[in-house]
Amino acid sequence: MTDFTRRTSQGFARAVVCVALACTAGLQGCATAQNQGDPIEPWNRQVFSFNETLDENVLKPVSKGYVNVTPEPVRTAVGNVFGNIRDIWSTANLFLQGRFRDGTLGIIRVSVNSTLGLAGLIDLATPMQLDRPNEDFGQTLGVWGFKPGAYIVWPLLGPSTLRDSAGIPGDMIFSASSLASTSAGANGLRALQIVNTRASLLRASNLLDDVALDKYAFVREAYLQRRQNLIYEGFPPEDDLPEPQDSTAYEKDAPEPAATPAAPAAASGASAPN
User: Fold this and answer.
1) What is the rounded CA–CA span in Å between residue 107 and residue 88?
2) DSSP conformation class of 271
């Protein structure tokens, strides 16, 4: 990574975190007793709507085209390379969390895939039962005892919390852009990573559209619960589970529930991707 690219990535990442801190601190007083976990919900919903529009009109069509023209083995190889880079950051966070055994296994995994796996193109470590770690600095802060803070929806980046936003700089540095020597190359790799990841989620997003009555609330609760499960390795204490948020002010905007007979088909994934 060039000095220019590194400075640009780090500067943008710091700006994102600073904006998160400023927005949350400034609007914290607007929280109600019923909705303390999402004090800036009106703003979040606007950003969520923007992201949905961008996804529907740009990312989803581009991802479908990418799937149509790119063979599955190539898409898998691309995902393996990006995943191998992220494994480095995940391994570092395992050590920061005091999970030295898992961190050592993470080093072995990266070493195997980077050498025998041809720079990460082939994932040889997973069949060897060296499972991919899924750690970031937001989870590390959670292990250290930091609470999630306000729920935040970032433009382009999607759902987060004040705590998890602190991990954005590391996620940006340890990403596909680190392979590029120019800013144009770094931006191209970022775009490829986004499209490749979105392509892998096409079917899941179709099911979400079919099931969720209030998509914003569904994504928020799913995100918060998943983050807690990741921090506590699947066994969060009951007193630390995220409280369900009150979205009654927006119930009038939620679509009517689908007819009961349509539910089994949607749940089973019978509908094909659009």
Assistant:
1) 8
2) S
In angstroms, the CA 175 to CA 95 distance is 19
Of 135, 147, 200, residue with least CA distance to 171: 135
Bridge-based pairing state of the strands 158-161 and 151-154: antiparallel
Handedness of CA 53, 259, 202, 217 (dihedral sign): positive
**Does 191 score more than 70 pLDDT?**
yes
**Whole-Å CA distances, 51 to 5, 157, 199, 231:** 26, 9, 16, 26
- pLDDT, tens digit, 9 for 90 and up, residues 196-228: 999 998 888 777 777 768 899 999 999 999 999
- Domain parsing of the chain, residue ranges: 3-267
- Span between the terminal Cα atoms of the chain, in Å: 38
Query: How far is Cα 182 from Cα 110, in angstroms, rounded to an integer?
Result: 25
DSSP 221-234: HHHHHHHHHHHTTT
Residues 218, 53, 69, 271, CA torsion sign: positive
Q: What is the pLDDT of residues 125-167, one digit of tens each?
A: 999 999 999 999 999 999 999 999 999 999 999 999 999 999 8
Q: How far apart are CA 109 and CA 130, in angstroms?
A: 6
Calpha distance 9→273 (Å, rounded): 35
What are the DSSP E strand ranges found in the chain? 151-154, 158-161
Distance between CA atoms of 98 and 207, rounded to whole angstroms?
A: 38
d(CA 87, CA 109): 8
Name the pTM for this structure: 0.72
d(CA 223, CA 246): 16
DSSP string, 96-119: HTT-HHHHHHHHHHHHHHHHTTTT
